[in-house]
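#structure-requests
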Amino acid sequence: MKPKDCFLFFVENLTFFSLFYVLPSLFVHRLKNVQSKNTVYFIDKTRPGFFLARFKLWFLGFELKKFQFRQFDVRDNENDSLRLKVNHMDVSSFKEGLAKSEFFTALFAKFNERPILKTFLVKQIALGGSPRLSLGKIFFLICAIKWQATKDEGFLGNPVLFLNRRPWPRYIAKYAEDRGIKAKFISDGKIDAKEVLVKFLGPRRIKFLRNCYYRLVKRKKFYSKGVPPSSPHLGAEYYGQLHLGDPKMYSDLFFYPPSGLQGKDVAIVFSVPRDPLDEQKLSEIKKHGMNAVIVHPRATVVSSVPIWDGTTKLVSAEEKKSVLDSVGDFPEPRWLKQEIKNYFEERDDWQQFFESENIKVYTTWFKYTSLHCVMADAIRRAGGVMTVYQRAFDEFPSPDITTAADVVFAFSKESRGFEERNSSFIPYHITVGYLADFRFPLLRELAREIKNRLQQNGAKHILAYFDENSLDDDRWHFGHEATRENYAFLLEKVLKEPWFGLVLKPKAFKTLQRRLGNITPLLDDAVKTGRCFIFKEGAIQVSYPPAVAALAADIAVHGHLYAATAGMEAALAGVPTLLLDREGWSVSKFYRLGQDRVVFSGWDQLWKACEENREDPGSVAGLGDWSPLLNDLDSFRDGRAAERMGIYLKWLLDGFKEGKPREKILADAAERYARQWGKDKITSIAPME
């Protein structure tokens, strides 16, 4: 029997309120298509909206379903991940096109001396200001709807997508139209309290109220004025890793030991509530003569260290008004004005902070939000320098890694082209090499101890496995189900094969048991064999670097090609390394190393190659061999990358101590580095000036 004609409708958020926008369209459609089969999919819902919709849609003859999809399953005709394609290609193309559009060109022509603000706004457009509004999420949803439409039998016409109102609807509708989907924008009636507060109060008043609460209720100490340190300081952001006395471990101060900097020159900035300053950390910091400064009330549990209260005054009111007046009647003027207003308030707070602590050089790796753009502008106004160092391997452009900083320390010269494509603004792009390579020789003894322990329990061949974390909602992220499949495969091999040893280096051990779910007993049984070792330390992420797990093994496997930093570190440490590409990302350069030699699409093929090579070493030519790409990944490979970065930071700080002008300091440091390491190691990407 011939299936009925099928029409598809999708509602981003099914609420009591959104139904009043959706139902009239569905009613008109039913009148025109009496005999058709109609399905309404919802992505998210509220309970009242769902119950009302179920009754109303049944009455109109519509089937109501939850739109069930996994990021892992949604792929294009080449079996590549559409989520990765959207984030690295579609959103980046949109961002670049918008930045070059007529209205943006006209807007920034009015204040061409503000390239950092431009970078901030372009990045915010792509990120949407919040995950709920991100273009990447919406574009991927559109692609997932197209993917679903190809699966529904008898489908006719264009799917209709009811989206919550958000900025840039014309561009989103065009993206949907190009993929055969009609987008309609409605209100779901939901109010995001945080967004409303930011909109009406602004960051400054919200911080003021927050600090009042912690001052009056929690009895925490704050300060906003004081005598700045007489000597310029280097500020380093703390993000969960201290280990000042153990260089083989992850550390946010990894560059300090070889730099020649003195402890009194360094201020460690605590801003992460997940891992606050405590007495143990404070003792370690004081032992090295450093200073701890707090910029968030929940980033400390030590009562003796006061918290910076950056809500005293607005230092750029006239400047902000001038910029806001320039927006005029451009598209989305309210959104633009709100983002600019927030930018200036945040920037002024950071400027006051840098001035109060006499921080003239600031360094961080966290470039994944727009905050570092704000900080870059703030420290420049305070007469200092913003530096960002590369922590992860980046291959394709993406809005979350677009960077604005005076100095960026990069692994290789190749990253320059990547940063240009990513619309970054970097006057001094410094090639230093892979910044963790100094740890390799320091980790060998511990790796040898782990390997000996596994061998004493019968392991003849050892594999190291790195995961890349997973999140609860597998529609938008790599989910737990795929993580369980990966771990289950390896853990079952440990229990089945008495010759097999396994070293596990999860990215986030604290959440591993929850992520593994019913696989956890399998992990416990594998550990009991004595042939499975797992790294556990770390408050936010595991404290030991991937290299120690790799060096304890005969071969290393990174479970995710699209985020290959751990695999890259293992390969640079000299360990044969394999990449598992279950998500599908065939456009990656790693495929040039050879499919079924370095890159594998599934566990069965990977295991077969490992077994063949174990039984007959060298029988699988090029297994785990990264040598053709290593120079592209690290331009030096000499173990001195952290030393080069640390010394460069010291040159900058010394320049401020000598009272030189900011631009002179930057130019002198670049010239000095070029003489020592080569002019080709310093480039400029869309200079801020």
